[in-house]
Amino acid sequence: MSSDQELLECYIKMVNIRVFEEKVASEYPLGEMRTPTHLGIGQEAVAVGVLSQREPTDVIFSHHRCHNHFLAAGGSTYSLFCELLGRVDGCSGGRGGSVHLVDRSVNFLGTSPILTQAVAFAAGAAFAFNFRKQQRAAIVFFGDAAFEEGTMWETFNFSVLHKLPVLFVCENNLYSTESSLEKRVPFNTSFTEKSRAFGIFASTCDGNDVEEVSKHSRNAFEHIKSGYGPYLLECLTYRTREHVGPNFDYDFQRNYRSKEEIQKWMTKCPIINSGEILMKVYGFTKTQLLSINRRASEEIECAFNLAKKSPFPSLESHFDHLYGL
Amino acid sequence: MTQTFTRKITYAQAISEATCLIMEADPNVVLMGIGMDYSSGVFGTTSEAFNKFGTERVIDTPAMENALTGIAIGSATVGIKPILVHARNDFMFLALDQLLNVCAKWNYMFNGNAGSLPIINRAVIGRGWGQGATHSQSIQSILAHFPGLRVVMPSNPADAKGMLLSAWKSFDPIVILEHRSLFEIEGQVDDGIAFSDLVSAKVVKEGSDLTIVATSICVHESLLIALELETLGISIEVVDLRSIQPIDCITVLDSVKKTGRLLIYDTSWVNFGVGAEIAATVAENDGMIMKTPIVRIGQLGVPAPVSKPLEDQHYPSSRSVFDIIEKMMSRNITSTKTIPSITKGFQGPY
Predict the structure, then answer these.
(1) Nearest 10 degrees: Cα torsion A50, A52, A58, A61
(2) Closest residue on chain A to B72 (Cα)
(3) Of A65, A162, A306, B142, which one is least surrounded by beta carbons within 10 A?
């Protein structure tokens, strides 16, 4: 990352996303957000770092843990709150819920919760860009378990065959629901090596270090837009909350991962770490950073209160958009 | 003003002609699937397009049914209109995650904000010559179960062309189920861009004693049976269902109100099938109009066997249909005529 300003921008975005997700976590138990929600707390640096390097014409797809990507792409907190509350001003009119987000005005073209669906969408958009000879890329975020489904490899094969301009971003957070990597892939499995065997350029980075994610992404976009075909970026990261819902696993005595492990990863928080760099390397003060937090909290609070005033969809609209024509 | 004229072409030629017309008119259309560029061109339906538009727009893909459907979805989000071709609809089971979980729901679940996915899926139903359990299924009722998808079964060359053209103009994802045994049949088809609607059933022969509602190739067999029975004084009305989703129950009900007898003949198994949907609709509307119980026929309830005597028995014969109608009409049908199956001489290519 070249400048303090770029890191500051990433920091502000990560704080906004974190405050948003924590607001969701605190409101969720009240039962008004009736939609299974996969919080992205702890993984913000991936979304923010990757998307800090995209051109506005590049398009984005994502999976079930998609709030980070939606917000990092420029999707509005108001329309996301409305969506979670099932209100008409939701980005999907309140019909899609937490895992079906879209905002075409920022080229965030859709999300889909079944693991590899969106991986193929991105290759499809990239195919269209090649077909029209446009200098654009498609970006897709997915989890490590996507490597377990066949569609992943079908898509990889086709993407390399047609040299598609697509950036595959794997958020490797070590767990699929409550199943650890050790249970799902043989010891010493490397997703980048597997991908390279398909002819995909691949690299791994610390997904909790927004500067490193940005650096790798910049290289990846350069590769893609030079016409060399797809790129896989594996970002090693961690979700601190439960798979779906607002709680910590240890609140429910779930034993698939230890409290110590979770707390160890919380010290590797991407926001705390980039805050430290902003202060130590770039001379920002604690007060400046705190004011960023305060502003984020105020904005999020305001968006949430506004969202609660958005009406529910009318009952007459139940059949709308089933068929176009 | 351009003058349209009608001439006789085959079902396969009609599909090919529609494909080329669409691709000439719309630079966003691409044709994708296995075997697109073979000289045989999916039974002659894609080779002309390949010769005209080349490898950029007619793409022979690896065997990747589910990813390909997802790729079609992604391309459609940025304005491409893909036509996907499956040489057998049985191969589409691999694509159902993307087709049913995503494609059918996209427009609705994003409240229209993610756009629609006007993806055309052509898929071919097989029958006969030992094609067997995994190459002779007929998956319309599975597909039609899911709101948001359109499912049609053109039974003649004019519809094969016109429905494909209408699918191109539609905003919805659609599956067009073509029957392999229809590809060589000929029929009158309008020249140029000539649409057929994607919704309505059509009475293809009027009659007063009994209604046969049929799909795809069964329409032809029903017509031959109806013509034979006409000579014996039994007046059969034949309804070509054409669209499975949405299903045109009004045309069916109108016919049944007139005849009071209903036989449903579908290309697939009877259980949970198209016939069950139609019979339920008739019962829900006014079951009392029926003079006799509704009868459903189709493939016997087993995977299609290869061995010839079993395969012959697997599909309704004209004799078995005469027997059913005899019962429904409470009169003897003395015809000894055996109407040869349309698929009888079929020896491939598959």
Answers:
(1) 40
(2) A124
(3) A306
Q: Are A101 and A71 in contact (CB under 8 A)?
A: no
**Chain B contact for A117 (CB, 8 A cutoff):** yes
Residue A103 DSSP label: B
Q: What does the domain layout of chain B look like in residue ranges?
A: 9-190, 202-329
In this predicted model, what pLDDT tens digit does every residue of B242-260 receive, in sequence order? Answer: 999 999 999 999 999 999 9
Q: Select B9-190's CATH number: 3.40.50.11750, 3.90.700.10, 3.40.190.80, 3.40.50.970.
A: 3.40.50.970
The B-side interface with A (CB below 8 A) comprises 30, 56, 61-62, 64, 66-80, 97-98, 101-102, 106-116, 118, 147-148, 150, 169-172
End-to-end CA distance of chain A: 49
How much is the pTM? Answer: 0.97
**Which of A224, A173, A170 minimizes the C-alpha distance to A201?**
A224
Burial of A206 (0-12, 13-18, 19+ CB in 10 A): middle
Mean pLDDT of A63-78: 98
Per the structure, the count of domains in chain A is 1
Express each pLDDT in A253-305 by its tens digit. 999 999 999 999 999 999 999 999 999 999 999 999 999 999 999 999 999 99
The per-residue pLDDT of chain A, averaged, comes to 97
- Which of A127, A323, A324 has the CB atom closest to B71's CB atom? A127
Q: Which residues are CB-neighbours of A263 under 8 A, at least 6 positions away?
A: none
Is A257 among the domain residues? yes
Q: Do A120 and B66 touch (CB under 8 A)?
A: yes
- Within-domain flag for A325: no
Pick the CATH number of B202-329 from 3.40.50.2000, 3.40.50.920, 3.40.50.620, 3.50.50.60: 3.40.50.920
Tens digit of each residue's pLDDT (9 = 90 or more) over B89-129: 999 999 999 999 999 999 999 999 999 999 999 999 999 99
Nearest partner of B78 among A129, A164, A66, judged by Cα:
A129
Task: Output the pLDDT for position B145.
Answer: 98
Which amino acid, one-letter code, is at B321?
Answer: V
